[in-house]
Design a protein that fits this description.
eight-stranded antiparallel beta sheet; globular; eight-stranded mixed beta sheet; Jelly Rolls; Immunoglobulin-like; single chain
Length: about 425
């Protein structure tokens, strides 16, 4: 990767503030695809973004179209304008100490140095007072945020009611989830703002004053039974129940997807199934879950057959990744305690042969969180101390896939089953 490209990626990473890019997971690149599209009207696929950031081996320079989109997202007109400018960023700035003049300096130089020092001190004091003047302390208790969902399914509009009249700045925002691209500037003198949610699940809406989060609300976007969709920007393609619930399982054949004029080359679609808010919540401290899945597309860019299971909670989700054995290095899983990278952790237990159904299970026992694939333990972790409750289930497949034998238990009680 050329130094210019690396520098551009660093600027974008700082703008996103998502942490180290080598810890990003597939879902992050899907979100980045949406964020860049919203900002530039150019769609860079998640797999393209993974290649650019080095999550997939790729030795070629990105196309000019891709570089132009990334440059525009970073705040520059084009890739050419980015490379021509002598860009000064604050990414890992290197501070050097001013050299101390030796005693042999002439009196004139010492006097000049004294003036410089006084000017620097004066400028520093002025900047301190200016910061205090432009950034007065923000008291979160002076602000409020509430919401009302418009339906019990997706898409779902949400009406936010807020009070930000005490804001010392006009920089007032409502962010509908963790995704910073979903941040909208609002009028501090008004009290209503609406947002639309296309994906079900757990979201954390925020009221932001300047750069400080002053109010935060948990929002669960439910579904009416099972919902299936094909990932598409800016609006997913929702499927009718008889299109994906057949033969006593969840499935979406390739032939049916192609009937909707969706291409599988060069990038295959992502098929998702969700069921949220239709069963009693289950504590992550004492549960067991199992399901059988099958990824049914392995051509072209889907050679890895990336798939995943989401245990959607009222906090951070549990994401169980599955792929063919040769691609486990690219897997990233998530628990309430954060992400686990396949590059730094042995996730080989989640590598499978999708020519047969794969049984995936997860449960807590004593102080352990255990994951099983085809009845073999794939990973064992300390149980999270973060209180959370499972409120929904989700599945995703690169290409397409099927699901059956779904079971969720709380202690020894069966809470939800399907197919």
């Amino acid at each position: 990767m050329s130094p210019d490209v690396e520098k551009l990626l660093k600027i974008i990473e700082k703008k996103l503030d998502w942490g180290e890019s080598d810890k990003w997971q597939s879902r992050d690149f899907e979100k980045l695809n949406q964020i860049i599209f919203d900002a530039t009207s150019v769609s860079l696929s998640a797999s393209t973004l993974r290649r650019i950031w080095g999550h997939v081996a790729y030795k070629h320079l990105p196309s000019t179209t891709t570089l132009d989109a990334l440059s525009k997202f970073a705040g520059f007109e084009t890739w050419r304008s980015f490379t021509k400018q002598n860009i000064q960023t604050d990414i890992n700035p290197v501070h050097t100490k001013a050299e101390v003049p030796v005693l042999s300096l002439k009196r004139k130089n010492l006097l000049r140095l004294s003036w410089v020092i006084m000017l620097v001190i004066a400028a520093s004091l002025l900047s301190i007072f200016a910061v205090k003047k432009t950034k007065p302390p923000v008291n979160a208790e002076q602000y409020s945020l509430s919401f009302e969902r418009m339906s019990g399914d997706v898409p779902n509009s949400v009406i936010f009611t807020y009070d930000a009249t005490s804001s010392p700045t006009d920089s007032v925002y409502i962010q509908q989830s963790w995704d910073p691209s979903r941040r909208v500037k609002v009028d501090k003198s008004l009290h209503k703002q609406t947002s639309i949610y296309y994906d079900p699940g757990f979201h954390r809406a925020k009221l932001i004053i300047g750069d400080k989060i002053v109010q935060e609300k948990k929002i669960i976007i439910p579904t009416k039974g099972w919902v299936a969709m094909i990932d598409h920007k800016p609006i997913p393609i929702y499927l009718k129940p008889d299109e994906f619930m057949r033969n006593n399982l969840l499935e979406m054949p390739v032939s049916e997807i192609k009937k909707k004029n969706i291409l599988f080359d060069p990038e295959p679609p992502i098929v998702k199934y969700f069921n949220v808010g239709n069963f009693d919540s289950v504590s992550v401290k004492d549960f067991s879950f199992s399901a059988s899945i099958k990824n049914e597309y392995s051509e072209g860019a889907s050679a890895c057959q990336f798939s995943g299971i989401l245990l959607i909670t009222d906090d951070s989700p549990i994401i169980i990744p599955i792929s063919v054995k040769g691609c486990v290095s690219e897997l990233n899983m998530m628990t309430a305690d954060g992400m686990i990278s396949g590059k730094k952790t042995d996730l080989s237990g989640f590598g499978v042969d999708f020519s047969n159904w794969v049984n995936v299970a997860c449960k807590t026992t004593a102080d352990k969180l255990q994951f099983f694939v085809n009845d073999k333990m794939a990973l064992e972790l300390p149980a999270s101390k973060t209180p959370a409750n499972i409120v929904g289930l989700g599945y995703f497949f690169g290409g397409t896939g099927s699901v059956k034998n779904i079971r969720l238990q709380s202690k020894d009680k069966l809470v939800f089953s399907a197919f």
